[in-house]
C-alpha cells in the first residue's frame, strides 16, 4: 500500500511504472517462496530430472511470452504479470508432479496452504486499506498504515492461517518467553 511513499523516500523521484514493478515483484517473490519446500522434497526423492525439466522449461517460457506480449503492445508491467502467471502455473505443476511422491494430494495442498494464505491476505488488508484510503498522505499515515499492516497480518495469520496445534505451540512459546523474563 505504501509502495509509493517507500520508493519516494528511497529514490526521491519515482520513475513511471516503478510502483507497480515493486508490487508485482513482491507478489512474485511471495509466490516463489511456496516453491522451496517442493524443490527440497523433490531433491530428497532423487527423481530430479523430469521435475527440473518441466519446471525449468515453464520458467524459461517467461522470456518469449513476455516478448510476445510486449510486441503486441503490452505495457512494461505486463512482463511481471507474465512472470507472476508463469510462477503460479509452475507452482501448480510442482504440486501436481509431487502429489504422489510426498503423499500430499493437490486438494489437501489447496485446503491447508493456499486457502489460508488467501484468507490471511484478504482479511489482513481490510483495515489498512480503509485507513489508507481515508487518511491524507503524510508521514503519519505512512506509519499508521504500516503498523496496521503488521498488526492485522499477525492477527489474521494467527486466527486464520494456523491450525489448533500451531496455535497451542505459539501459546506455549509465548508463555515460556514470558516466564523466562518474569521470574
What's the topology here?
Layout: H1 3-11, H2 18-33, H3 35-45, H4 49-60, H5 62-71, H6 77-98, H7 106-134, H8 139-159, H9 164-181
Termini gap: 42 Å
**Shape by Cα distribution:** flat
Please provide the ordered H/E string of secondary-structure elements. Answer: HHHHHHHHH
What is the assembly state of the chains in this entry? single chain
Coarse structural class = mainly alpha
Low-confidence stretches: none
The biggest sheet, with number of strands, parallel, antiparallel or mixed sense and barrel status, is: none
Helix content: over 70%
Beta strand %: under 5%
Number of domains: 2
The counted number of beta strands is: 0
Q: What is the mean pLDDT? A: 92
Over the alpha carbons, how many angstroms does the gyration radius reach?
20 Å
| Continuous helix count | 9
Concise structural overview:
The chain is built from 9 helices and no strands. It is mainly alpha-helical and 183 residues long.
